[in-house]
Write the structure tokens for this entry.
Amino acid sequence: MIHPGAFITFEGGEGAGKSTQIRHLARELEALGHRVVVTREPGGTPFAEAIRAVLLSPEASSDAMTQALLFAAARREHIRALIGPALMAGSVVLCDRFTDSTRAYQGGRIAPEAIEASIILATSGLEPNLTILLDLPPKIGLARAQKRSAAVDTFEKADLAFHEDVRARFLAFAKGESERFAVVDAAANEASVAAVVLATVQDRLGEHLAEMAG
Ligand code: TYD
């Protein structure tokens, strides 16, 4: 899909501060005159949010392929109904989690070809212009996430070793696709992480954003 917008995804483990950082960046980009759409996965549209509720509920299937197919269904609807039209209209779309979460969370239990097949069915090849990986040791992230809400979802419940694997997979993707990814240390305080995120976006997409605004 060729579009005049900018698609920026945020990835990372639990409690890395993705939604907080997305809020900061949205404010900065709006101040620069951009139309900004903030959204998340799984979710972003009423139907995809309904799939999210199923995926994160205690009754959710523990089968990784079933999960991957539901994440893919939610993603397809999200792109069709929200992300695609926003990008075609020239907006900046900031998305809390996207395809790399499927690769990192379901990837340990499904063959890479099957993961990629589910992703291509969902996205028809749409890729982020930039992916910000907020990197944090899972021990710190899980403690932050548990402080934020007493309810622990299906994926937060997984053991520390699983979250260490997820982190390692994210870092490996970033290394393999260094043009699309930027790794930001999420252990620092909120304001300094926000400053690094903004500088990174300007560095990587500044020219494109200037063209969009002009
Ligand atoms: P969320 O509340 O968005 O997590 P966080 O607050 O840490 O961002 O919950 C989404 C959960 O779903 C999270 O544990 C990661 C998981 N997930 C997958 O396993 N695969 C996917 O493709 C996506 C998008 C999310």
Remarks:
- The mean pLDDT is 95.
- The CA atoms of residues 116 and 159 lie 25 Å apart.
